[in-house]
């Protein structure tokens, strides 16, 4: 009996131990579950962070913040026959772009064919673009084509400089030319074409002048303080005539004139109408420094708008403005030393202050007579149609470089003035 009791106690002890062991095991298994869950949550958060980092990296690849591009092409050729074809094309999308293109050709040959092309396609907040082509050619027979094109979409600020220099020496001696005249002098066989297409925000073409057509003695045209639209152009053609020149103002002058727009440039050029550029942002034409200041302002506006080099900028002198020779001299000195040509508009009647001031400026600097284009509003014959325009009879200082005659003021229809422009001025229009 005692042995059975001992056995019972032993069995009971073993069962108790097994129960305690099982209880401990299941308790530990339950406490491990939250640890595993916590680990899974941490992994999810990390995955989200990685996705965010990947997205930022992708955005950074859409375009650089700043882009600096420098292209230099330098050719030195000494041969019997030189053929050179240089082409630079930049496609840039960035916040800020600085682009410098330089093409230099030094050629000494019997004959040469040179083609230089620079194309800039830029989409940026701001851009500085400097393109230059420099040809130094000594040859008997040469054919040179230069082209600079800018397709620039800039939202804040753009500075564009295009420069083409041709230094060409024809080495044919007297009597050696292929097409000699009866006098035995050799004929120079040189063809040079320079083209600049500055399309800054679609500001039309960058060409100026009337191309290779024979220059007419005079052409009929208009000027206006209003923006040129298709309706405006139709109004002029239906009521007055078909203008070959259209005078427009550089920048808006509140209460006086609306500034030339890119859309106008495209419209007028598509209709083969040249643009005469007028600057009228002053009402006091006295003082040398004052003339310089306004000339510099006009240059900045012309460059910002993409007006090509060689185009004349006309200072607008109204009859109520005080004017002296110093202002004219200051304007001319600055503009004539730039890439643009110097011009002046006003009533050039001998009784007017402007006429007297101009002649005084010429006395101090005779070059003004040969270099400064004069657009006169004297005499006033009244508005007419192109067909009924008066005989060309402008009033201007003797020997001056006459550019045109505004013979009729303030048409009641279409808001225009009517003009006859001299063939002299066609090469300095846009």
From TrEMBL:
For this protein, the record's Gene3D superfamilies field holds: Glycosidases
Compositionally biased tracts (Low complexity) = 55-68, 167-193
Renumbered to this chain, region (Disordered) spans: 34-100, 167-218
**A Pfam family matched in the record:** Rv2525c_GlyHyd-like
Domain called Rv2525c-like glycoside hydrolase-like: residue spans: 246-348
Q: Which SUPFAM superfamilies match?
A: (Trans)glycosidases (SSF51445)
- Spans of biased composition, class Polar residues? 69-79
Which InterPro entries does the record cross-reference, listed alphabetically? GH, Rv2525c-like_Glyco_Hydro-like
UniProt protein name: DUF1906 domain-containing protein
Q: What are the leading ranks of the lineage?
A: Bacteria, Bacillati, Bacillota, Bacilli, Bacillales
